[in-house]
Specification:
Blueprint: E1 2-9, E2 14-15, E3 19-21, E4 26-36, E5 39-53, E6 60-74, H1 79-83, E7 90-91, H2 100-110, H3 149-154
Parallel strand pairs: 6-7
Antiparallel strand pairs: 1-4, 2-3, 3-5, 4-5, 5-6
Length: 164
């Protein structure tokens, strides 16, 4: 067993359409690599900066994500290698293991499908598109109920609509 503490650049963009780790961003690895009977077990955490766009108000934001990793890489000619599909478990090739796909999978599962800039983000005004977080208090639009709109058009312009 040996610990591995390293910072490496992200080989590509990792994540979803609205949120992800940019290519070249620093990936902080805090891992424990140990030999077990069937292969090499890698456990630990990955920490990285993520950039996203709020799904409610479309504001860009930056934060950090911490992802737990647990991955077994099978030794050649082990029972695990013989009893699993090629894409089910990683393989030890020579003396090397490739962490790229397990990292991509773990980050993809950790990131939110609909990211928000903050938990209480009110989003955009459905009528004018102004971000409600920065709009004046009581922001609203006077709208006539569509069921009564035709009647409002029948009123004479010189009346206020009240009783005569």
């Amino acid at each position: 067993m040996f610990p591995l503490h390293d910072v490496v650049p992200s080989p590509s963009r990792i994540g979803l359409e609205m949120i992800g780790i940019q290519a070249g961003a620093p990936l902080e690895l805090d891992l424990r690599v140990e030999s077990v009977s069937e292969g090499v077990l890698v456990t630990g955490t990955l920490t990285a900066p993520v950039n996203g766009e709020c799904s409610r108000c479309l504001t860009p934001f930056d934060e950090r994500v911490e992802v737990g990793l647990t991955e077994l890489f099978a030794y050649p000619d082990s029972i695990t290698e013989a009893t699993t599909e090629e894409d089910e478990v990683g393989r030890v090739v020579g003396d090397l293991i490739d962490l790229e796909q397990p990292i991509i999978d773990a980050v993809g599962l950790e990131l939110p499908f609909s990211p928000v800039c903050r938990p209480d983000c009110p989003g955009l005004c459905p009528q004018c598109g102004v971000p409600l977080a920065t709009a004046e208090p009581g922001h609203h639009h006077d709208e006539i109920d569509p069921r009564w709109a035709k009647l409002a058009g029948m009123l004479r312009p010189d009346t206020d609509g009240g009783p005569e």
